[in-house]
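fyi for ur records
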Amino acid sequence: MLLRFRGPDGMVRITVEPADTFARLGEKLSEVLPATVDFNTLTLSNQPAGGEIKLLKEIARHRVSAIGLGHGDMVFINYKHVDSLSNGNSNGDTTTSSHPLSSTNRLNGHAILPTEDLPIDPPPMTSPSEKIKNPWELVKQSALDDRLDKLNGKIPRKRDVKMCRHGEKGMCDYCMPLEPFNADYLKERKIKNLSFHSHLRKINSATNKPELGSSFMPPLTEPYYRVKRDCPSGHPQWPEGICTKCQPSAITLQPQTFRMVDHVEFATPSLIENLLQFWRASGAQRLGYLYGRYTEYTEVPLGVKAIVEAIYEPPQVGEVDGVTLNEWENEKEMDEVARLCGLERIGVIWTDLVDSGVGDGSVICKRHIDSYYLSSLEVAFVARLQSQFPKPTKWSDTGRFGSNFVTCVVSGDESGQITISAYQVSNSAVEMVRADIVEPSADPTVMLVRNEEEDDGSESRTRYIPEVFYRRINEYGASVQENAKPSFPVEYLLVTLTHGFPSDPKPLFMAEAPGFPVENRAVLGQDQELKTVSDRLGVDKDGQLRKTSEGVLAVSDFHLLCFLHGMGILNKEEEALLCRVATQHDLADGYQLLSTPGWATLLAILQTTGERPPKRPSPDDGDGSNTERLAKRVGGVRLD
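which gave:
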């Protein structure tokens, strides 16, 4: 009988006999699975998540037919690779990965992956002393930042009837415009954090005073908690030598008073609904990257808003309590498709949902004020992502400052309803993770400060741990400073954003529901196929486009654009034209796309793929001879 096995590396099919044992089944699996699979960790289950799980080595003596497997059944397998193990039994020599290991590979102070101790995603070996000369002339920042730099930013006020004693065209202290960082105005509007450009105006007014005739100094400086290289004192490089000029100062953690992005807006509720569909169908969690753009946010002085237009789900293995990300081979290609659509990767979103079991669709509230909002493991993950997407700005002496990358979590609230929360981690958190100063804890509410010693007791040669403090309000209401070792609350590293949906949705991608299947959902039986492309485009059996109500909107689907890019049929100009049709919905561009050679090739492939085999001819061709011959054949059959 034929059995299908779906695992982290795709689906395989093998043929076994009902009398074969699972040991024999494992031998056949070893022929089709990657050579690096550790079969001591291979498990089998009847469901992708939440089902009964058995280790293959525990049931090796039993027959395949003993558990009721039949021809064509699907079995879900999971395993670990030999080169990703360090503390278990392996079938061969472990290979050292060329990628630096992150601090998230340690849990509660103990290594859980190879013990090579390197900071995550280390930038080029530079020090803060290597600053950019005249960054306001060399650094190219975004068009949005250029527009906000030119705005006045003042908050206008109307004439106060009680206090103002001047005429309509006059002005006094009671009606003059306020600065965008005015504390009373922000408190009145319940704005917790300054926008980035308001924060920039505030520190720039204190750093540079044009009336004094002094030279301009960039007001922004990124935190740097690593040992400076090329110290001018002349001593050997650390760890052989160190002095007060090159060692980092003590860190005092405080909640960040500003945020790089103020608001996250989802272009249409269907984006979240498609993400929730996976959880409802499998019970497993799901993660996706947000693609969109940044624009002004008028509800906050000089605010910035992130508009999400699409969610791309990378290769991953969903579990009941989280996800495991696989290698994303076409990451740069998907970013290029988004760029052709005028978008960029602006954030990440994942689900953390547990059904309440009541049967009314409610979920359990896991994240609240008495537990946590982002766990320490998630903070480290988000910090790594933000470090990969730095924000270029001409107001910083290094040419970059912080990140506009946002994080959204879909979880349950106090009333049992599914809700969205938006966050960023502070610039200090990004640098502390980059410098390998902190590591996640088994307790999701606290972050651990690492020790300078290695696991064997020797002194670390890859990281320097400065003193870390944080301030809190004690039981007497006084603000006190405490040592952050061994741990401190993760709230000191979080920045909260607002989120919402537009009252009048105008999404960039307007294809009608249900839309093209979402990528990497083969575990649910949802595959992206050429037949689905034909159905979405309205291609008939002759390879011609049928007239549909959608028209050019048929290609206005980000997942369809990514699939067509992977086929490699259209050249760069034709693909740029396709993305322009999908986002601008111009009928003239649509007719131009139909006349391109690449589009004609695509239609020919869809026609060939969608052809049906010719029907068998009827026994009666019209002269009655076949009918008579068939009657004689039937009449020759006799029952004894």
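Confidence is low (pLDDT under 50) at residues 84-129, 611-616, 630-640. thats all i got for now
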